Amino acid sequence: MNPPLRSPLSQEDAQRFGSDPFSTFRANLASVEDRIARACARIGRDPASVRLLAITKTVPAHILRYAFEAGIRCFGENKIQEAITKREALNDLAIDWAVVGHLQTNKVKYLARFASEFHALDSVRLADTLNSRLERENRTLDVYVQVNTSGEESKFGLQPSELMTFADDLERFPRLRPRGLMTLALFSTDMMKVRPCFTLLRHLRDELLQNHPEFTELSMGMTGDFEVAIEEGATVVRVGQAIFGKRPTSDSDYWPGFAPV
Ligand SMILES: *Cc1c(COP(=O)(O)O)cnc(C)c1O
């Protein structure tokens, strides 16, 4: 396969992604995969049971061509508008798109057109709207139900106590394919505070599995905490910065009330 034609890197791009983003991303991916393997080894898990979902937010579309070349086939975006723009710019590549951020009902129609998975389902109203739109597009969507495991008021996601009923409710929406649960842990560098969020999500999943065998997956862990998440059972880790480098944007752009603890 011929590499896609590329324009020379701007100084800004070279500063952020290195003079050869392909090699940068390859090396970063290898390092993340190695860390996944070592986390798995610590608790006797098969590394093949963990999927690395690359989170591409803020990485410009033309740079994502290098990521594609480096082997990434599923791109995770937090904001729907950014996902739409990139998808248009990259429509010559066979990419699967994941949306991992909170979705407003008025954006559902866009997501329903192209996303293959959605990691932030957190209300019946949203599920209902998504289902209708998917029906119209004749598509289905893999969904992960977001749970607030940190107890922070600012966080999106269902309360743990609402989960069982919610999973029952989802059976009314045949276009949605529940895959599992998703969470954002407490934002802290203290893993003693982070780990219990992941443990809780695993327990909730195990409970849910008794009535809802389709909820097998645990989407949890990001650059700062994915190894702990894997130790607690993550089957999908959503990793951005460890692959693409530090983001120029603040995390508060994505998560309301973001405040590192
Ligand atoms: C940005 C984002 C991630 C990845 O965070 P990194 O620190 O870049 O690894 C994971 N999940 C969600 C919902 C995100 O918005």
Automatic annotation (TrEMBL):
<comment type="function">
    <text>Pyridoxal 5'-phosphate (PLP)-binding protein, which is involved in PLP homeostasis.</text>
</comment>
<comment type="similarity">
    <text>Belongs to the pyridoxal phosphate-binding protein YggS/PROSC family.</text>
</comment>
<protein>
    <recommendedName>
        <fullName>Pyridoxal phosphate homeostasis protein</fullName>
    </recommendedName>
</protein>
<dbReference type="InterPro" id="IPR029066">
    <property type="entry name" value="PLP-binding_barrel"/>
</dbReference>
<dbReference type="InterPro" id="IPR011078">
    <property type="entry name" value="PyrdxlP_homeostasis"/>
</dbReference>
<feature type="domain" description="Alanine racemase N-terminal">
    <location>
        <begin position="29"/>
        <end position="248"/>
    </location>
</feature>
<feature type="modified residue" description="N6-(pyridoxal phosphate)lysine">
    <location>
        <position position="57"/>
    </location>
</feature>
<dbReference type="Pfam" id="PF01168">
    <property type="entry name" value="Ala_racemase_N"/>
</dbReference>
<dbReference type="InterPro" id="IPR001608">
    <property type="entry name" value="Ala_racemase_N"/>
</dbReference>
<keyword id="KW-0663">Pyridoxal phosphate</keyword>
<feature type="region of interest" description="Disordered">
    <location>
        <begin position="1"/>
        <end position="20"/>
    </location>
</feature>
